[in-house]
Amino acid sequence: VIINNNASFGQIFWEQMALGFPEHGVRWEKEANFAPWAEACGGLGIRVTKPAEVEPAIAAALAHRGPALVDVVVNPDEPPMPAKVTYEQAKGFASAFLHGQGRGRSIASTIVSDRIDQLKH
């Protein structure tokens, strides 16, 4: 199992914005570490905090004889965007930002940075 750990209910967070609502009740007060939970259940638990650790962690999980979980810490402001954003989704995001979306500056910066990276490649 691989968990994209964004310290929030990320999919719900982005759905709220796509529908035009600022985020509400989706960020965790404390960051969850799922690796010890996997170990408490008898499996292998690996926590990844740096991109360079991803490949070795997945290799270790696949080599393990039994259940394994890789808890990958990711940027909470990284959007799980579809290949194409519909007009209605874009309108919803704009509405959420206009109505006081928290962390709006960080989210916008991440989206712009991602787009620039896409254009470079």
By secondary-structure content and strand pairing, the structural class works out as alpha/beta
What integer is the average pLDDT? 84
What best-fitting shape do the alpha-carbon axes yield?
Answer: elongated
Biggest sheet details: 3 strands, parallel
Given as residue ranges, the uncertain stretches (5+ residues, pLDDT < 50) are none
Helix content: 40-55%
Spatial separation of the terminal alpha carbons:
30 Å
In spatial order, strands of the major sheet run 1-3-2
How many domains? The number is 1
Please state the CA-atom Rg, rounded to the nearest Å.
17 Å
Got a strand count? 3
State which percent range the strand residues make up.
5-15%
Topology as H/E string? Answer: EHHEHEHH
Total helices: the number is 5
Task: Give your account of this protein's structure.
By secondary structure, the protein is α/β, with parallel strands linked by helices. It has one domain (2-120). Helix content is 45%, strand content 12%. The chain contains five helices and three strands, in the order E-H-H-E-H-E-H-H. Strands 1-3-2 form a three-stranded parallel β-sheet. The longest helix has 17 residues, at 104-120. The two termini are 30 Å apart.
Write the layout of secondary structure elements.
Layout: E1 2-5, H1 10-18, H2 34-40, E2 44-48, H3 54-63, E3 68-73, H4 87-98, H5 104-120
Parallel strand pairs: 1-3, 2-3
